[in-house]
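Journal club prep — side note

Before the paper discussion, L.F. wants everyone to see what a predicted structure for a comparable chain looks like in token form. Sequence:
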Amino acid sequence: MSRVFAVVPAHNESSSVAHTVTALKGLASEVVVVADACDDNTAERAREAGAIVLERAGRGDKGRALAQGLNLVAQQSPEAEDIVLLVDADTGESAGESIHLVEAVRGGQLDLAIGVLPPAGRHGGFGLVARFARWVLRKHTGRRFRAPLSGQRAVRWSAISRLNALATGFGVEVGMTIDLVRCGARVGEVEVQMSHRFTGRSWRGFLHRGRQGWHVLLASIGLRRVTLWR
């Protein structure tokens, strides 16, 4: 049976990362947490929960955090049918729901399964960045995606290993989807009952979505600044 490697980017997620790791340990042979420019005890909590922990210094960058985790997975000599599970650290106990993403890939239906989470409702923003990301993906792939920004994904190693670079920051998911579709990978969405912390409609939330939109724009014009397989 194919092995599963989980990669969890985590920026100041000390309150949830241990629950996320515990949930993923039931699914994956290894759980790699990349503590991304943290100034709390995220790394310590992840180690206590049994994860392999990598620590990034400097400015937080989700694309670079994922690349660091993927490069560690590459050192384990994964086989073509092995699966990499990408899960955000704030999903907590609901990370166990990502088994449905793994099954969609392991069953042969998809090479990349993207998790569609329940609607955020009033806890989320106004959906402007998501609509922009859908337009970008429609323009580049000809397809409409319900959850273009979802960080909950399972991808076959033979697919992800064909990529040479990732988009930076919060554009990493949109860039990955575009690049894998162009490589001929079978990409689809799977509903999962996962939850995560919403940024809401505070000034911090709008600042986050502003950065996210900028990174999606950079991904849309083809910038792939994060080199893989060093």
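L.F.'s comment for the group: The radius of gyration is 16 Å. Keep this in mind when we get to the figures.
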